[in-house]
Amino acid sequence: MPPLKWMRVKRVRLNKHKVNKAKLALATAALLVNGLSWAQMTSVDGAMGYNPFAQAAQTTTCEAGDEIISVWLPQQGAEIAKSVLQRWQSHPLARLSDCLEPRYYTTAASLQCTASGERQHMRCDLPLLPHEVTQRHIVFTQAEIASASTTQMVLPLTAQLSVFAHEMAHWLGFADEYEMSPSLAQHYCSGRYNHPSLNVVTTQQQELSSAQLKQLWRRLPWRDAVSDWRILGQQQADGYWRLGSAKDSDVGLFASKTCAGVAGVYSWKPVARLTAMEYHDVNYWPAVYLETALKLQRRSGLRDHNNWAE
């Protein structure tokens, strides 16, 4: 795990009580990343309930200009979550989004979480300050499944690092490569989403003319990794190109299951191999995915998803 960088507390004029409170927050955050139990933490101060109006000191690998993401953890029973956060620091995706600020809650009821939709995704009505409403929040709680929306990611307390990484990837601009649920697919596969999709493109046809194939190549998010537009398909006797790269191509155009449930729409990804965006357990993150996300992030930061990620 790389050494942690400490962010400065912005407030300068603090009285003695506030200084002690800031020191306590710093000590608590340090204990968190060092993997100590909540029993040890509460021995410092037995009353550590969350106060939305209290400024908490931040301990993350943040740098100037980074977006700070709040991570909500229960005071008790967060051992797995704390381990995930610690191991995240060395994950390939962490360089793209590693500015995390721990926050704590006393009971799950205080988060006011409810489940809805086809897959019973959970959303929480967090006690936020006005300026925090549009910021991103990660909530570890008693959820059945993991999901991510525009500003909120909800994870089971037992979620593993592979699940955490999959959901973080949605915020970075990656779409699911397994078959999307009908409601999500109807939006995504018809192009009704307000964010770049870095690893999946769609077409209305399986065969294109040379001009159409060149146009597809130009709009690929991973175009820089494909040296020639002809890599994207196999030319047929009539001169048209059937989409799909040769199996021995490292990067090209390969069918994904993303839009399998939508008639007349075909979805494609950069690599043939199964990735973590289809099955998180394989934990495979192709270099082209990381390179594509890094280039986009240099221009605009974390993506603004439109409630389609699962």
Structural features, described:
With 310 residues, the chain is α+β, with helices and mostly antiparallel strands. The chain is 25% helix and 17% strand. The protein contains 7 helices and 15 strands. The strands form 5 sheets. Strands 4-3-7-9-8 form a 5-stranded mixed beta sheet, covered by helices on one side. The chain has a 3-stranded antiparallel beta sheet with strand order 10-15-14, with no helix packed on it. Strand 8 and strand 9 form a beta hairpin. The longest helix is centred in the first third of the chain and has 18 residues, at 16-33. The model is unreliable at 1-59 and 303-308 (pLDDT under 50).
What is the topological layout?
Elements: E1 5-6, H1 16-33, H2 38-42, E2 59-60, E3 69-74, H3 79-88, E4 100-105, E5 113-116, E6 121-124, E7 137-141, E8 147-148, E9 152-156, H4 161-172, H5 182-188, E10 201-203, E11 207-208, H6 210-219, E12 233-235, E13 241-243, E14 254-255, E15 266-269, H7 287-300
Parallel strand pairs: 3-4, 3-7, 7-9
Antiparallel strand pairs: 1-2, 5-6, 8-9, 10-15, 11-13, 12-13, 14-15
